[in-house]
Amino acid sequence: MGTDVSNAGRPAYFTVRKAAWILNVEPSAISRAIRLGTVRTTQRNGRRVIPASELARLLGQPVEQDGGRK
User: Fold this and answer.
1) 22 in a domain, yes or no?
2) What is the mean pLDDT of residues 46-68?
3) Residue 5 domain-assigned?
4) Which pLDDT band holds residue 60 (cuts at 50, 70, 90)?
5) Which of 22, 24, 61, 70 has the most CB atoms within 10 Å of its CB?
6) What is the spatial distance between Cα 55 and Cα 5, in angstroms, rounded to a whole number?
7) Distances (CA, A) of 7 to 10, 28, 64
8) Cα(33)–Cα(46) distance, integer angstroms
9) Could you tell me which of 14, 29, 23, 34 has the C-alpha nearest to residue 61?
10) Helix, coil or strand: residue 19
11) 28-52: b or e for each residue (b if 16 or more CB lie within 10 Å)?
12) pLDDT tens digits for 11-53?
């Protein structure tokens, strides 16, 4: 008999690498957005992570990979 430990009811968080994969951009683009303050992060277990609600917000907006240069 196993114990089911789920994240039900707890907010989800993603690393920069996982968020970049979900958004289909380079991790450096996410890191740049964090430095510029356009992506909100939080500290969890000593790591900088991105809340799922922030990813949902970003999925509704176009994300530029080249930092806006044309």
Assistant:
1) yes
2) 80
3) no
4) confident
5) 22
6) 24
7) 5, 28, 31
8) 20
9) 23
10) helix
11) ebbebbbeeeebebeeeeeeebbbe
12) 699 999 999 999 999 999 999 999 999 999 999 999 999 999 9
Q: How many residues does the chain have?
A: 70
Residue 3 domain flag:
no
Number of domains in the chain: 1
> Can you read off the two tokens belonging to residue 4?
């089911």
Span 44-70, mean pLDDT? 78
Tokens of 26: 């380079």
- Residue 48: phi and psi, rounded to 5, are -85, 120
Nearest to 63 by CA among 30, 15, 21, 28: 30
